[in-house]
Amino acid sequence: MSMFLDTAKIQVKAGNGGDGMVAFRREKYVPNGGPWGGDGGRGGNVVFVVDEGLRTLMDFRYNRHFKAQSGEKGMTKGMHGRGAEDLIVRVPQGTTVRDAETGKVLTDLVENGQEFIVARGGRGGRGNIRFATPKNPAPEISENGEPGQERELLLELKVLADVGLVGFPSVGKSTLLSVITAAKPKIGAYHFTTIVPNLGMVRTHSGESFAVADLPGLIEGASQGVGLGTQFLRHIERTRVILHVIDMSASEGRDPYEDYLAINKELESYNLRLMERPQIIVANKMDMPESAENLKVFKEKLAANYDEFAELPQIFPISSLTKQGLATLLDATAELLDKTPEFLLYDESEMEEEAYYGFDEEAPAFEISRDDDATWVLSGDKLEKLFNMTNFDRDEAVMKFARQLRGMGVDEALRARGAKDGDLVRIGKFEFEFVD
User: Fold this and answer.
1) Is there a domain that residue 360 lies in?
2) Of 50, 67, 128, 305, which one has the fewest beta carbons inside 10 Å?
3) What are phi and psi of 343, to 5 degrees?
4) Rounded to an integer, what distance in angstroms lies between the CA atom of residue 151 and that of residue 352?
5) What keywords were assigned to this record (predicted)?
6) Assigned domain for 35 exists
7) Is 388 annotated as a binding residue?
8) Which structural domain, as residue segments, surrounds residue 389?
């Protein structure tokens, strides 16, 4: 089994806030001591941190659930509960994080040590010391902690490389990577020898250096899932320059120019923006018979079918086996990289707006529906948060929740929908009777 994994779906749950406490001073010689219950502590966040030592999402293959600790409950003597520590989850460089429900990109983690909070912990509930007023100096009210954020995430790894090697299987991409870098990819005389991306660092004679990724061979239909192409085409997206490797010897009976057109078609079909990357054509296997003649025909076809106002891509004849022409190719690649800017992977429509963990003022505070058993069902983020933070073990807290519902207009809305005295109303799994 390959130890390379570049996609994963996980669930994260931030910690709940600690519950506030109801307590009173009962010390000797302290008359009318009053409330003394402290607030609960903050729940822990779930934080992704980039670790440059990781190269795959294999750690998420079996461990798919990440839950931060909840905050400590409030204590007597007005003491606050301790906040929980954040849960640190380490991810490799080049990890894109999406919300599984909306498909929006939350963040693109590319810098070593970069951090991003993917789920925020709930705040602690208030103790009864917070609810004391001149009218009610000894309240028996406290809040439960706010629930931590919970979400399902899609992780997608796109390797960090300046240059990507693309081409049909067995055109010599792995051999080329092995001679220009210290990488040791698997090399064999059969298709799809490379089944995972391989990375290597190149250093030119002039001292320039850049990262090269050798990607599994593409075939026609790769963008629709044929072969291994669709699984690894994503790794080309971060590259700034594409080296299009072509078997100029036509050793497998294919036309080199048709190969060139077919691969570009797959890149364009997968992501039109890949065609914005500058390409260098690498005419490989020039040590083989008929390669020189095939290269001459290739150049003629390329010139004949290219827009006369467009600049023809550079072509470098090389032989990975004899190392012919490699120095010139690497110098030209380094020069092209110097003048090629980074490409923006995601536009604004794909990115989720900066996370806002409060309530949308324009969104309705609650919604009313009716279940099959004729029970009225109340839902809505604001209403459900108030419900979750209410301590129903305390009569005063229950009465406070009832006043909050009335203030939100729930009573009037239920009457307008036809609710009558004695009808059942449900919030989550909690049911109560409507009193008109």
Assistant:
1) no
2) 305
3) -100, 135
4) 14
5) Cytoplasm, GTP-binding, Hydrolase, Magnesium, Metal-binding, Nucleotide-binding
6) yes
7) no
8) 365-432
